[in-house]
Structure formats: structure tokens, C-alpha cells
Amino acid sequence: xQTSAEYKxxxxxxxxxxxxxxxxxxxxxxxTAAIEQVGDCSSLPPAVIMDIDETVLDNSSxxxxxxxxxxxxxxxxxxxxxxxxxxxxxxxxIEFINAMKGKxxxxxxxxxxxxxxxxxxxxxxPQESDTIANLRKTGMLDVQPGQILLKGEEAGWTSEKxxxxxxxxxxxxxxxxxxxxxxxxxxxxxxxITPEERDSLTSAYRGYWGERWFMLPNPTYGSWMSVLGDxxxxxxxxxxKQ
Length: 242
Known about the structure:
The chain is of the alpha/beta class. About 35% of the residues lie in helices and about 15% in strands. It has a single domain, classed as HAD superfamily/HAD-like (Rossmann fold, 3-Layer(aba) Sandwich).
């Protein structure tokens, strides 16, 4: 992710494709990208929903430290990283976001960065202000607290993003979704599901990919790994093996 030209080509490819499709999405008042959006949404203002980590912000420096120290992800060290506000932008993301401002499209960021006090007298969600400051550092224009919907910010906002997409769908016509995990697009795909079932869902929505849904590459972590039971080596296919 840090050195690969192919990684940058992949992310740029996704955002370029989105830019090519956005005018068609805006022109077709029946167009929606969210399966949570039901009923007539033609009169609602347009919005795109984006994940943050590994979709807009590149946290490979955090993962790099974990690797170099032979450690593992932890909530404590992750929160320290969020507080530093040092994540860079995923290539293509900020250019796309700022282009949406010119087209009158609201950008809403649904993230599983988790709200939590750092001290008894501190604010209830310092992670939100840290994230906003970090996004501004990367060049995102006019980002405001109302655009950020973090895990735990409101009751019922769990790692399952469906309820937050439903909330957005009440107020906006959701024309595009962006993420690095299947859970950024579909509910019920992060646990209690087999890889085969996830593949089937991905195929069922094949017409959405690259038009309404844009998946960013993330080879470092994700529910693609967490849904696998142990030992994970049993999922590896090799030639000459049954």
C-alpha cells in the first residue's frame, strides 16, 4: 500500500470511474445506490456515503508500526494514532470529494472509528474532532461535524452500518457508496456468514460495482478475514490438492 504503484492505480481507477458516472446519477432522479433507500426519493437532495479508513484516509503508517514492532492492532494504540491526526489521503479521494462540492452533492462519512472519552472531564467523542482535523489537513474542503457519523456516536450505531445508512436515506438520495469492506455496502456480511455466501451477495449486485458502488483495495485487514474460522490455512487452495 505504501510503495505499490498498482495500489495507487486501483484507488485512482475507482474515483475516476465515480467521477465519470456522477452526472448520470444526478440526472436520473430514480437513481439510488443504497438498498436501505425505499420509496420515492426523487425529491431528496443527492449525497454520497463514504467510509473513512482506507477509503478516504490511509492508515498504513499505523499498520506499518504494528508490523515493524511485531505487534497487533489494539483499540488503545489505534486511538493514539487517531489523536495524532497524521493519516494521509487515499489517492484520488480528496479530489473526488471536493469535486462533489461543486456539483451540489453532500458527502457523508460513515466510519467505525469509535467514540470514547479519553478522560473523565474530556469531550464524549474527541475522535470526531480529530478526524475532522485530519481530513482538513489532507485538503478536504469545509468538512463539518454533521458529515461524520462515527460508531457509538448515537445509541444503536454499532459496527453494522445499516442503521446509519437508513438515517441518511431519510434525508438524502444516496447516489453512490464508497468503502473498503463489503459491510460498507451491504448489511449482515461481517459475521455469521460464510465466504461463499459473501461471494453470492457480491455477484447478486454485480451491476452496482463501478457504477453505484466503489470498492477500494485493502489487503491489510477487513471482514474478509474475520469471517474465516481457524485455522485460516484451511481456506488456502493449492494445485494438486483436493
